[in-house]
Predict the structure.
Amino acid sequence: QQQVKQSPQSLIVQKGGISIINCAYENTAFDYFPWYQQFPGKGPALLIAIRPDVSEKKEGRFTISFNKSAKQFSLHIMDSQPGDSATYFCAAANAGGTSYGKLTFGQGTILTVHP
Amino acid sequence: DTEVTQTPKHLVMGMTNKKSLKCEQHMGHRAMYWYKQKAKKPPELMFVYSYEKLSINESVPSRFSPECPNSSLLNLHLHALQPEDSALYLCASSQDPSGSEQYFGPGTRLTVT
């Protein structure tokens, strides 16, 4: 029940296209859903995050869509650029609960944006 | 500024060595974390410090020993490691121990020979 399932494992998109990565969770106690971007040899960088009181959050070219009833959330990257090529991890946490400090990560998606 | 720094960037150690990894943040965050990340895998939580006290130990072998000297510093002491411990070790911090808004450092690439 603690799992977060992420798909696809890898994604190839042309420059200017839309990249979409999906995640699904089971634990209804999760109340914080971040996305991390990681370049090779670097630490994950917090990209954008959402809480279940909103269905969508947009920051620049990055948008999180959240469907509480389906227990799913997704990352949309508009106008994808070669510099967006990285591994993306979704995650979830029960930020308001007692199991503090624990982010449950998805398995990651390797995004390649071709010029 | 959301910077977490880690030293060293790379470390090669033998199985009988003792070494330490260091992490520092100056954001006033009160929770700090150690993660281990293997290639092509997500980070795995090892330890959580909340207000300088160890609050979570994810059943990590005793050859890994964390230490939090003050609210800005986090160390990970390594002793008698195994080759399978080779990985990227990541430090993270967050404003509070809820787990939200964790900011990661660049990591230390550890190789055990």
About this structure: The first strand of chain A starts at residue 4 and ends at 7. The CA atoms of residues 19 and 55 of chain A lie 19 Å apart. The interface with chain B takes residues 32, 34, 36, 41-46, 49, 87, 89, 91, 93-96, 100-103, 105-108, 110 of chain A (CB under 8 Å).
